[in-house]
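#struct-pred

JT: dropping the chains for the assembly here, can someone run the whole complex?
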Amino acid sequence: MHLKELKLTNFKNYQEVRLDFQSKINVLVGKNGSGKTNLLDAIHYLSLTRSAFCADNFVIRLGEQFFFVKGLFQTGKNLEEISCSLQSGSKKVFKEGVNEYGKLSDHVGKYPVVLIAPDDTELVKEGSEERRKFFDSIIAQLDRQYLEALIQYNYALKQRNSLLKIFAETNSFDAVALESYDQLLIKSGDVIFRKRKEFISEFIPVFQKYYSFIVADEVALLEYKTELDRTGLEAGLTSNRQRDLYLQRTNFGIHRDDFHFILGGGELKKLGSQGQQKSFIIALKLAQFEILKNHKGFKPILLLDDIFDKLDDARIAKLLDLIKRDELGQLFITDARPDRTRELLEHINVSATIFTVEKGQITKI
Amino acid sequence: MEYPSKLIEEAVNQISKLPGIGKKTALRLVLHLIKERPESTTALSEALTNLRSQIRFCKHCFNISDHEVCSICTSHRRERSIVCVVEDTRDVMAIENTSQYTGLYHVLGGVISPVNGIGPADLTIEALIERLNTASSEIKEVILALSPTMEGDTTAFYINKRIKDLPVKVSTIARGVPVGGDLEYADEITLGRSITGRTLFN
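RK: done, full complex below.
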């Protein structure tokens, strides 16, 4: 699968742009702040119906009332036009061909992309929510039932927490009302728990393969941590009831799960160097790429943001090695230094289409 | 917007508070009233004042009513052994329009949604239980006719849990493929439910 053509109107710093891409390597070069990453974000938007970096109202070009993005995707012999428009204050319209999607979730997963931004270490540094989001978004792209269960769980959790607050405010208690949400949490939570376990056991070996490829002689571990391993969801909710009532929120369940990143026996967040954290993230993303590829039967689009600047030579060499072996599909690479990119790609003897980006204008070289 | 008169401005402000009506529509309505004979505006304002001061809720089923007890609850032609639980008055009207139901109703006044500040105590669920518990109750079946949304389902679960030990049968409306609809256009969840909830042909 690859993106043949992209058209942007009022998307971030672009007023009006139309571009043709090749099916292998596309490089975007330009100064910092010229809009290279915004172009990657437009591709991300078409694939996942949202920006990788900001909320919808910041996607519309400053001073304008709407944005429009259109992409022509080729999968095998199939050519499909995907478009999205958003008028500020109205609902987002997402179309495949001329047909509008009823639910955005129907589109997610059809044209998968993986974004690697090595500087983006939130996944390592931030709380467990970021890591749950990362894995949830992959599993949801592969499994509709998982997505439905996740929506149901989050609904029940929000309602249950509000109910606990109402109990505290009105000094009342209604066991049956609490149970009404507990049964929903149990039903959907068990599905999420089972599927997270299943997924992570498939993910770990792929991840470890890539980590030891990037950093030879180092072993990285990934662990799914959940309270449900010790206690069932139903029993856990029951035994935490008093605490829940006191703290006015739900203290047990899969919304407290975490994924631990471990390196050399210690926690990556605390003991890992900057370089190790970047390698870890790249290995996670490459594993995401391979898992999506295995399930979809074709290669997702890979967006590589600023990797030549943010990685050391040894790691760059490994990535170039993957490109040379043709293991990756269509690539979009951004770089602030055109000469460096050209040199690196010439070195591995692959041809690329290079675009220069300057203040919202793009020209093919 | 600049209005030529303070009176018009005040009327527009009040009317545009109504759901679905913006300032422009409100202005059109106001100008229309000025053009009409004064009596029609008096009739309108009287109708609204009477509506608000005289409207009542039936003390048995909580449906909107002119009297203490509504016309459905007092009717001799209605079956007293069956009660249909609905969210609001619009649902009573929808079910009445089917002419398929001859029992009584119970209007909840909403569905449980703590996020919006609505707990079970804010609805008429206690009154329903009391209704089923009174010695003179003839009710043998309760139909839960709530929308198949997450809120509706939770509310149905809650009510069922509260009344399942009483000597009444609890049923829920069937859910599945709409009449006259094509199977292939039904969404997966609806079609799935209509398969698991299939009924005998005769």
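JT: nice. Chain A has a mean pLDDT of 91. The interface with chain B takes residues 148, 152, 155-156, 158-163, 165-166, 170, 172, 174, 176-177, 179-181, 183-184 of chain A (CB under 8 Å).
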